[in-house]
């Protein structure tokens, strides 16, 4: 019997999430759009994640397991290569889709021109008792050719995207060497070749968990530095954006106690764009010593302002 390829392949990487994975899988199975397959890639879990996944008696579900942990990027790449759908979506094992997520995105693709490769949406980030809507208004252009806007920082949530599988033919998938921010790097690459469409409403809940890799500040800083070097030609085209990225790296490193490297990045920031006032003020602040810097940093965090 010939098996027809599904419209959408949903890739779910997971690692030791036996207590959460059911919610993520069920939210995909409950979609109003049902022409799909679910590829769960178990990244070497040592808890009973595998048993939970196998308990789902649904032919849409496919299970791939690594014998040892390789990281979320490797797991997602495995899922992409195994996918049979024309479109690929990514679900995180601790997140929850709204039932109409895929249906709304497929409707947008149905009306979109061929240069659109990605349809993504807003989402609610759940942190303890807070519900925060993303992406923020800091990013002004959220659809079309958003390459330059993405160089300012990432605002495309991985579990929100629906992406044409053909997009990966011109890219190197998720960078498995990055310790964090691998989604940002991939969107920067894809945005060189395809336009993005944005649905300005939340279509999922993203839950903040204590062991999230993106909560590790050292990983974030290392990844940010690597991405800047990897795409330096693109960042160089807009000196203000490059300066702001150097500023973010510099202040992040200083906050982590690496004042020597942090100061070097702040100097780079002012060299590429002399009118960056926040960099100038931070460099002046550092003249008064590290203890003064930390006092101002803590004050800025309390007031919600950045130094």
Question: Can you walk me through this structure?
Answer:
With 307 residues, the chain is α/β, with parallel strands linked by helices. It folds into 2 domains: 8-212, Spore Coat Polysaccharide Biosynthesis Protein SpsA, Chain A; 238-303, no CATH class. 40% of the residues lie in helices and 19% in strands. The chain has 12 helices and 9 strands. It has helices spanning 21-29, 49-54, 72-82, 101-111, 147-150, 182-190, 217-230, 232-235, 239-255, 259-272, 277-286, 290-303, and strands at 8-14, 36-42, 61-65, 87-90, 95-97, 116-127, 130-134, 162-164, 195-207. Strands 1, 2, 3, 4, 5, 6, 7, 8 and 9 form a 9-stranded mixed β-sheet that branches. Helix 1 (21-29) links the parallel strand 1 (8-14) and strand 2. This is Glycosyltransferase. Residues 9-148 form the Glycosyltransferase 2-like domain. Keywords: Glycosyltransferase, Transferase. InterPro entries: Glyco_trans_2-like (IPR001173), Glycosyltransf_2 (IPR050834), Nucleotide-diphossugar_trans (IPR029044). GO terms for molecular function: glycosyltransferase activity.
